[in-house]
Amino acid sequence: MIVLGLVLVAVLATATVLILRGRDDRPTAAAGSKPAAADSVQFRPVLSAEPQACNGQSSGPQAEDIRCGADGTRYTLGKVELDGSRVSEVEAAQGQPGPNWIVQLTLDTEGAKLFSALTTKLAAGEPPRNQLAIVVGDKVVSAPVVSAPITAGKVQIAGNFTQQDAEKLAADITG
User: Fold this and answer.
1) Could you tell me the pLDDT band of residue 96, with boundaries at 50, 70 and 90?
2) Which residue ranges does the record assign to the SecDF P1 head subdomain domain (predicted)?
3) Counting C-beta atoms within 10 Å of the first and last residue's C-beta, which end of the chain has fewer, N or C?
4) 143 is in which domain, residue-wise?
5) Which residue has the higher pLDDT, 41 or 5?
6) Section 39-43 average pLDDT
7) DSSP string covering the chain, please?
8) 87 and 115 in contact (C-beta within 8 Å)?
């Protein structure tokens, strides 16, 4: 009877360990990647851009539709077309080719549709209305020109980032 009881305890303990381990072994996002915080990043069309109009300031907008870039450009922005709630993964990665780093975003299915529509509209615009502002906090971290629609739900933010810069931006986006 004692032996049977010990065997039963051993089986239950083993089953508990396997169940808990199974929970830890579930597939997750790639190492180092996280989903974005819903309110941490915004994708907004650029309506106008004034170089050096922020006098070197990188934050402190005066109105909801005005944001400054790190280079001092003052951007007047359209409405938020997409936010962090549609970003399922964010990670810093080394760009190819070259030593510069990028931040890669993966959008969910709805985010990919919204981003495709946004970049299709922007690609047809004239400067600066063909730029997409990527806003983190109160700062435009990048405002690339969109020359073609981006439809696959994969977004790369490039900007001559060092590894530290890319990791910081990825951390800012994930909140």
Assistant:
1) confident
2) 71-171
3) N
4) 41-174
5) 41
6) 89
7) -HHHHHHHHHHHHHHHHHHHHHHHTS--SPTT-BPPPTTTEEEEEEEEEETTTTTT--S--SSTTEEEETTS-EEEE----EEGGGEEEEEEEE-SSSS-EEEEEEE-HHHHHHHHHHHHHHHTSPTTTTBEEEEETTEEEE--B--S---SSEEEEEEEE-HHHHHHHHHHHH-
8) no
What is the token pair recorded at 62? 């005066």
User: Which residue, chain included where needed, has tokens 């810069």?
Assistant: 165
Largest Cα–Cα separation, the chain:
85
Q: Is residue 3 part of a domain?
A: no
- Tokens 């004692």 belong to residue: 2
**CA 102 – CA 158 distance, rounded (Å):** 5
Q: How many domains does the chain have?
A: 1
pLDDT at 151: 94
Residue 13 maps to a domain: no
